[in-house]
Every structure is written in C-alpha cells, then in structure tokens.
Amino acid sequence: MVTIFNGVNGKNTLSECYLGNDIPLYQSQICEILTHIRKPGDLRTPPKIAIISPTAYSRNNTAESISREISVMVRTIDFSKKNIGRGDLNTLFEEDAVYICQECQYLFERRPHGFDLLRSFLSQLVTNSRQVITTWNQYSWNFLSGFLHIERWFPIVIPLPFLSLSDLQEYLLTGESEQIRFTIDIELDNTLELVRKDVDVDIESLNLTFSIPYLTIRRRYASYVPLLADKKILPEELIFREIFRLSLGEPGIGYQIFQNAKNENEIRFSLLPKSLTVPELSAIDNFILTLILMYENPVYSRLNQSIHDKAVLNSSLYRLSSAGLLMRDEDTWKITAEGFAPVVSYLTQRRMIWE
Length: 355
What we know:
Elements: E1 2-8, E2 11-17, H1 27-34, E3 49-53, H2 56-69, E4 74-78, E5 98-102, H3 116-126, E6 131-137, H4 138-148, E7 156-159, H5 165-174, E8 181-183, E9 192-203, E10 208-219, H6 234-247, H7 251-260, E11 262-263, E12 266-268, H8 283-295, H9 300-307, H10 310-322, E13 326-329, E14 332-335, H11 337-349
Parallel strand pairs: 3-6, 3-7, 4-5, 5-6, 8-12
Antiparallel strand pairs: 1-2, 9-10, 11-12, 13-14
Helix pairs in contact: 6-7, 8-10
C-alpha cells in the first residue's frame, strides 16, 4: 500500500493506493498515474499524461509497471523503434485501448521543419478520446517546453526524479538474492572537489517554492571518520556514495555501474569507473553531445540529418568516444555510464540543456 497526496481545490488530501505487483521504483508516481486512468463506464475524455525522466530506464520500468496494473487492454508504441510518417498518425489510436507511447522525443528532429511530425502527433493526441500515456526524455522535454510549450498538451506531467542516496542504495540491493560483500581494495583519492548544492526557498505568502543552486568545495569522503565508523559498514557506505556521485542518483546508470563493479557476490571499489573530465569541445561537439543526450540512443542517420556533413560528424564522434563520453552499440550511439554525470554538468553549465 502506498499513501499519496492528491491536490483537490488547491488542498492536499491523503489517499491510499494498492498495487497488485511488486514495484521497486517510483511507486507514488505510478499510483498518481493510475488515479487518472479511465474506469469502465466513465464516458469522460481522460487527460493526456506525460512521463519524463533523464534516461529511458526509469520511463520503461514505469511504463511496464503501469501496463501490469491496468486491467484493460494496453497498446504500446515505441517511437525509437517504429518509423512512422504523418499519414500513419490518422490510424494510430483506432483500437479501444489504453495507449502507451514511448520515447516521444523521436517525433522531432533538430533541423528545419523538424517539428512537423511532432505537431501532427500532438494534434491527433488532443482530438481523440483514447487514454494516452506518453514518455519523454527529460532534456528533450525541457527543450520542447522552451520552443513549443509542449506542457500545454498534457494536463498531467509526471517527472521521475533522481533517487536520493538512500533510495538508490535500497533499490540496488533489493534485486540481490545473495549477501553482497563490499571491499575497498584501493587507496581512496580524498581530494577536494567542486560540488553543486541547492538551497530550497519557500515563500508562503506568495505560495512560491524554488531552489537556488550554488557551488561549494569539499573533500570527497570528508563526512566519514574511519576511526569512529563501523568497519563493516564503512566500505558499503563509501561504495554507494561513489555510485551515487557517478550516477547522480539515476537508477539505470547506478544499476549499470553497480553490476559492472560486481565480481561474483563482491562489489569492489577498484571496479567502479574512474571519474571523467570533459575536454575542451568545439561548438559542433557540444551540439552532437546534446543530441545524443536528448535522444539517448539515436542511430547514425538521425544525427546526420541534423549535421548534414558526415566528415564533421565522424570526426566529432571520434573525439567524444576517445574522451570516454560516448560508446557505439551497433548503429546507435549513447552516453557512457561514467560519462553521464560529467556530460550533464558540462552541458548544463553551457546552457545547452536545462535541468
């Protein structure tokens, strides 16, 4: 059972949500989505829903969980795998079902007239009476919000945020059937590092809440005093802190780093990826890196449609791959697990993406 808050006439009310399946991630967000699913006999047009997250891992897990919880027929369309034209949109929502449209960022391209297909999709979305749940990359969504105010088409927007350190640790350990041992098998680098923090400001008189980011310097492991710490707990805490730092709390990135650091039933600090530094990049490098972060797994041809110069594109992909920021998987490109955090920080500082 999950207890969630629902806004009613500007007031928060408590409600209980009972999930029929074991769902380790984003239970409250899933419960909120389920409250908007049209029930049998309800003739009202259901609100269109957008689920947004920094990586597809969170969105896909959430979409799968929702599919298992819904008792009516569900149709899933993955736009990263299905090439459609504007003519196909006319028959997209023909069946009487709940539609889950995944990876909707693939409906637009960063080029002239690159929004035409997306606009047609949004037009079909608001003129049909089907229950439609869409999923989007967070950085693409923020870009589209600035250019198209895309949130106008979606009364219900569900962000899937980064996990806290404790939540990430709980999630990664939940799926382990055997007892995991944690080993610090290298000398730790306790150097000074620049970290970003946020100060939450709440102005009750204006009903306004916002965060002010700032940078501070600290030692990477300064909050732990080995002489006073429990020797059995210390390695586990240090390793999870490092996974959290490398992943920003993104569960998919954290899971990949966790699994790669596993040797049988032992997690070794030496197997965690080394921190990356983004080198000096050109404007075209920044643009290509932004495209890959926004689409997550674009094919080469999609990137070339925005660049229109294979020599320039190939040169940039080579530089970014050599820096450890990108990797190729057959015909698709993606940010590496160890490159995710520095790429997000780098592109945010240069206003190429918005958090």
